[in-house]
């Protein structure tokens, strides 16, 4: 019993410094053969460069994008909606983001990034760039598309 307690205590500083990030991704199937995605502008998102980073990673997978204000034109077969939230600890940082990819009105992909509360206030990773946080999430979403 003491070994478990000592082991737990030894790992506690590491846990505090790394924090806890959860990523939930339901990848898009290759059967959709996506070449272009219309991104629905979300004016409530104030995370700097969020849509630029999303568009750049989609481009890395061979998928072009274009921003639209709602409603997205009917000519758009694939549509991406998103939300991104900031938290603050000495400076703002991305704490939560969701991407939903639709074919017409049917959701075909989903990706979520979330920093959980608790030990996060001690985590140094929370101040990582939006690009560093979202690139692996989007890569998982589009894993079946060339990179």
Descriptive report:
With 147 residues, the chain is an alpha/beta fold. It has one domain. The protein has 3 helices and 6 strands. The chain has helices spanning 2-18, 50-60, 130-141; strands spanning 21-26, 36-40, 64-68, 78-89, 91-103, 106-115. Strands 1-6-5-4-2-3 form a 6-stranded mixed β-sheet, covered by helices on one side. A hairpin with a 2-residue loop joins strand 5 and strand 6 (106-115). Helix 2 packs across helix 3 (130-141). The longest helix has 17 residues, at 2-18. It is globular. The N and C termini lie far apart (48 Å).
Net shape:
globular
SSE-based structural type = alpha/beta
Q: N-to-C SSE series?
A: HEEHEEEEH
**Kindly state the mean pLDDT as a whole number?**
85
- Helical fraction equals 25-40%
Number of DSSP helical runs = 3
Can you list the strand order of the major beta sheet? 1-6-5-4-2-3
- Biggest sheet statistics: 6 strands, mixed
User: Gap between N and C termini, in Å?
Assistant: 48 Å
| Poorly predicted runs | 1-18
Quantity of strands, as a count: 6
Beta content: 25-35%
The multimeric state of the shown protein is single chain
Radius of gyration: 18 Å
